[in-house]
Amino acid sequence: MRQTPRVRWGEFAIESLIRVIGFSTVGFVIIIFLFLLREGLPAFAQINLDNLFGTRWYPTFGLFGTLPLVLGSALITITAIVIALPLGVATAVFVREVAPNWAREILKPMIEVLAGIPSVVLGFFGMTLVAPIVRETFGAPTGLVAFTGALILAYMSLPTIISVAEDALDAVPKLYRDAGLAMGATQWQTIWRVVVPAARSGILTAVMLGMGRAIGETMAVMMVTGNAARMPLGLDALFRPVRTMTATIAAEMGEVAHGSVHYHALFAIGIILFVITFLINLAAASTMFRKRRRGGLR
Amino acid sequence: MDKIRTEHLYFYYGRKQALWDINIAIPERRITALIGPSGCGKSTFLRCLNRMNDTIPRTRAEGRVYLDGQDIYSPDTNVVELRRRVGMVFQRPNPFPASVFDNVAFGPRVLGLYSRAELADVVEESLRSAGLWDEVKDNLRQDALSLSLGQQQRLCIARVVAVKPEVILMDEPCSALDPIATLKIEDLMRALSKEYTIVIVTHNMQQAARASDFTAFMLSDAERTGQLIEFGPTADVFTRPRDKRTEDYITGRFG
Ligand SMILES: Nc1ncnc2c1ncn2[C@@H]1O[C@H](COP(=O)(O)OP(=O)(O)OP(=O)(O)O)[C@@H](O)[C@H]1O
Ligand SMILES: [Mg+2]
User: A209, A48 in Cβ contact below 8 A?
Assistant: First the structure.
C-alpha cells in the first residue's frame, strides 16, 4: 500500500501533538514540585527544626509544630484503611467471585459512580448525618471528630480499593481455583485460602492506592474533623477533634501574608505531604512491579 | 473389582456434544490409560469422574457414573466430598504460590487438621510417597514455584495424596516435562497404584504401553465426538487390537 503525503503529514502532526502533550504533563509536574520547593524550603531555614517538628501549631505565636498535623493525618488515614480494607476486599470478592453475572454488571458501574461523588458532598453528608450519629453512639461532646473523618475517608477510598482488588482477584489464574476445588475445598475455602492469598500483592497495592487517596483528601476532612491542632495521643484520640495537614493548608493559606514565615511553613507542610504520598505510591508501584516480574502472582 | 463404572455417559458443552455413550469399568488399584487423538474427549471424560466439569457454565452430563456403585451425578451427591475421594493432577503443574509445606498441607488443613505435629507428619509422608521428600526436606519453606517443573508436578501429586483420595486422575501429567522427569512420574504412578486407582490421559503411546495396566482408546468421527472404541488390558490393546481404528492409531497411521 502506498501512503499519500497527506496521510503521512496527518500522522506526523498527531504524533508530535501527542509527544508535546506527554512531555508537558511531565513538565507541569516538575514545575509544581519546584514551586513547592521554592516556597517551602525557606521554612526549614527560617524556623528552627525543634519548632518545626514540635508538638504545637500556633502560627500567631510563632509556633509551627507540624507533628500534630502529621499525626492527625496519619490517625484518620490509618483508621480509614482499617475500616475500608475488610469492606473493600469483601466487596471485591463478592463482585468477582460470588455475584451472578447480572449483579456484577449492575454493581461495577455503581462502584465507579461512587468514586465520582464530589468530596464536598461527602463532607456535607458527614456533617449532617454521620457526625450526629457518632456523637450519640459514642457519647462524645461533638460529632466532628477524627472517627467521623475516618468514616468519610474510608467511604472515599472504597471505590479505589474495590476496583484494584477486583483486578487482582481477576488476575489469579483459573488453574489455582481448579486446583483448590479439585482438592475438595469448598468454594469459600478456595476463595479465602487460594484466590485471596494469591492476589495478596494486588490487594496490598489497592490498600496503598486507597491510602494515597485518603491522605491527600482535604475538603471532606476539613468539614467533619473539628480541626483542632492538638496532638492526637491517648486512647480517646479518635473521638476528639483533629486537624490534618491538608485541612491546615486549605484553611490558612487564604489569610497569610505572601512571603511570611507562616506562608513558607504551610508550603513546608505541602512538602512533607508530598514526600509521604510519594513514598506510599512508590511502595504501591514497587509491589506492582515485583508482581509483574514474577510473572503474574504474589 | 471395578472402582468406577459409567453407563451411557454423554456430555455436552452447551450445544456441543463432547462424549458419546461411554460405557467403561475402571478396575480398582490399577493404572488405566486414556489414549486418542486431540479433541476426542479424553479430558472431558476425566473431568466427568470428579465433576470438575461442573465448574464450566452451561455444561450437562447424561447417563450414570458410579463410584463404588454409587451414582456421583445423583442429586444427593456431595461434590466436595466426591472430589476428596477422586483427586486430580493437571496437565500444567499448578502448585499454589506458597511454600512447599503449605502446598501439601493445604488439603489436610481444609479438612480441619491444624495440629502442627500431625501436619508435619502428613506432609512428610505425602512428599515421600511422591518421591520428593529427599529433594525438599532441607527447605520445606521454599517457594513451590522455585522448584523445577518435574518437582512441581510431583509436589502436585503429593498435594493430592495428602488428602488420601481413592482415585487419582491425571490429565497428561508429563506433557510439560522432560524425559527423565517423565520416567520419575511413571515410577511414581506404579508405586501409587498399589494403593490408588489411577486414570491417566496421555498422548504418548510408549507411556501408555509402558506404564498402564489397562488402556482405553477414544475417537471422534464426523458426527459424534468422544466415543470409546476399545478398552482392555494394555497388552491386548497394543498387541492385538480388536478394532481396526485402534490398530491404525497405535501404529501411527492417523491421529
Ligand atoms: N470448555 C469447553 N467448551 C466448549 N467445548 C469444549 C470445551 N472443552 C473442550 N471442548 C470440546 O470438547 C471436545 C473434547 O475436548 P477434550 O478437551 O476433552 O479433548 P482431549 O481429548 O482432552 O484433547 P487433547 O488431547 O487436545 O487434550 C473437543 O471438541 C473440544 O473442542
Ligand atoms: Mg485434554
Answer: no
